[in-house]
Structures are given as structure tokens and as C-alpha cells.
Amino acid sequence: MSTSNKDTNDGRKTINIRGRPRPYLDHRRVGRRDYYLLEPVGSPFRQRYLAFDPRSGPGGDFFLFQVWPGGPATQQQLRVLKRLKDDSLPRVVEWQRRGSDVDIVLTWIEGTPLAEYLENIREGRRPPVSPRDAVRLIHGLANAVCKLHQRQQIAHGDIQPPNVIITDHPSRLVLIDFGSAWTIESTAWREEGDGVHRCYAAPELQNKGATPVGFFADQFSVSVLFYEFLTQQLPYGGLGGKAGLPVHVSRAKDALAAPSQVSPPCRALPSSLREGIDRAVLRGLALDPADRYVDRHQWLNDLFAVHARFRLAPELPHVENVLTRVVHWLVKPR
């Protein structure tokens, strides 16, 4: 493996990655390790890059390289990142102060950004997610979020497609950005972080003066993703979490249509599955946090019940069930 740099015809420097030259944007040294920043990832408002360390193991390895301005918000993020010990989440490899900024290196999660995945569905480049797979993926994400709250005492606060990776073999949803996260014990004096996407953020994260409860806020954001998987639309007529803002709430509270009213694949499901999905989605999307699932056990139990029912022998839709009973009655020996 060569670590020497070369220039491309357009003047860009390259590094050999597993036998192939690849352009890079910048080179940073953290401690005794060299990181080559290959391309920006995620939100354009954040300094976050796919990086490569040519001396990390045989053949080198990829990492997530973040640059944060110094200050209370960065200190809050470091407290959060130091608690991430689960292999299914990004973990801090090392960090250092560089002038007024802080460079943070995290493990890289292989997969496709959920924002790109959903865009490919909208553009017809990949088929929509089936209700069965949507339930499986969201059940897994909800488990991860609840573990984050219960074991690490962390609220994510910004669950949206650019901050989620969908992995392959097996496919699952993984949170990759904790720029707006906070520790549960610091909720009352938390920093605002680097912003949220108003369509995916819970209303209480957007209303000034409200003290958010992390579990309720993250539950709402996961439910927005659930709704989008099932319908290829955002809830509340496209408003998502903005529906809870004072300017919208009076006319938006009755605008939430159940997935089975919007999605033909959901509508075609047997009633037990259809009603179970609708119930879990609508409760998680309640604009008032008090109307959502009050604890993780209720939320996970409802999601698990639907997930488990998909794995059982399929129940016939109502019309087919009636026709089957009629046929059985007609052919019954008399």
C-alpha cells in the first residue's frame, strides 16, 4: 500500500486506497495518525468528512472526521460521545484541540445515507420499502433509541434521514450524528447544538421555552421516519414536526391521516396488521408529548407485536376471508 500523494490532472492530490488513487480534500494529523479527508458527508452546515487512515490495520480503514468549534456545545457533544460504547453506534477513536476548534475522529458505519436511500425511492431508482420491512427497520431503530436513553442516558435530539445510515446484510438503521444530542441529566441546561430539521424534530424542540423530554422527542422523530417509509410522505400534510408550531397547530391537528388511508400497500394488509401499524404510528406522532407512548416498554411492545405478526402465517384480508368461508361452505359435504 502506498501512502505517497500525487496530483491529478486538475491539480487535486490523491492517495492510494487499496490499490486505487483517490482524490482528497485535506490532510489532518491527530495524535500520531494521519487522516485524509475524502469527501464531506451529511449536512452542508457541519464540517463532517469521510476520512481514510492508510496505517490503520491491513489496507487502511475509513473513519468519520468531525470539526467542531470550541465552546459549551462542543463540550456537551464530547460528554455524549464518550458514553457511546455500543458497537452498533459510532465510537470516539481520538480527539484533539486545534486552535479554537476540536477535531473528533469516530468509527465509520458502512452503508447508504437514509436521505439518499429515500431520494432513490422518490426518483424511482429503487422500489418502495414494504410495510413488513418498514416495521422491521423501525422496530430495530426504536430499540437502539431506547437503549441509548436507558443505558447511556443520552437523547439524540436530531433524528432525520441525513443522520441515519441504512446498512446492508442485514439491513438496519444506525444513528451516526450526535451534534444535537445531550445527556439526560443536563436536559434543563442543555445547549441547542447545531440545529434540527423542523419537519423531523418534535414540536417541543422547536417551541421556545419548552423543556423537551428526550424520549418523547426522539419517539416523535422515529415515528416521522416510520410514516415516510410507509407512505413516501411526511405526516401532517408535509409539515411533520412543524405542525405543532403555534402558527400551524390549530389547522394541522386534524390533518394527520393514518398510513392505511394514504398507502395502498398498508390498506391491503389484514386488519390486525393495518390497525397495529396505524396505532403505533399515530400515537408516536401526537403533537402533545403527553399523548405519545409514556415509556419505552409500551412503544417497543406495540412495535414488536406488529413485527411478530408479520412473521406468523399471513392472515387473509377481510374480503378474501369471507370468500374463503363461502367456498368452504359450498364444498362442504352434506
User: What is the molecular shape?
Assistant: globular
Rg measurement, Å: 23 Å
- Annotated CATH topology of the largest domain: Transferase(Phosphotransferase), domain 1
Number of helices: 11
The level of helicity is: 25-40%
Written overview of the protein:
The chain is an alpha+beta fold and 334 residues long. The chain folds into two domains: 21-107, Phosphorylase Kinase, domain 1 (2-Layer Sandwich); 112-311, Orthogonal Bundle (Transferase(Phosphotransferase), domain 1), CATH 1.10.510. The protein is built from eleven helices and 14 strands. The protein has helices at 72-81, 114-122, 131-150, 203-206, 214-231, 246-252, 259-262, 264-267, 271-284, 296-311, 318-331; strands at 5-7, 13-17, 20-23, 26-30, 33-40, 47-53, 61-69, 92-98, 101-107, 112-113, 154-155, 164-166, 173-175, 182-183. The strands form four sheets. A six-stranded antiparallel sheet has the order 4-5-6-7-9-8, with helices on one face. A three-stranded antiparallel sheet has the order 1-2-3, with no helix packed on it. A three-stranded antiparallel sheet has the order 10-12-13. A hairpin with a 2-residue loop joins β4 and β5. Residues 187-194 have low confidence and may be disordered.
Layout of secondary structure:
Elements: E1 5-7, E2 13-17, E3 20-23, E4 26-30, E5 33-40, E6 47-53, E7 61-69, H1 72-81, E8 92-98, E9 101-107, E10 112-113, H2 114-122, H3 131-150, E11 154-155, E12 164-166, E13 173-175, E14 182-183, H4 203-206, H5 214-231, H6 246-252, H7 259-262, H8 264-267, H9 271-284, H10 296-311, H11 318-331
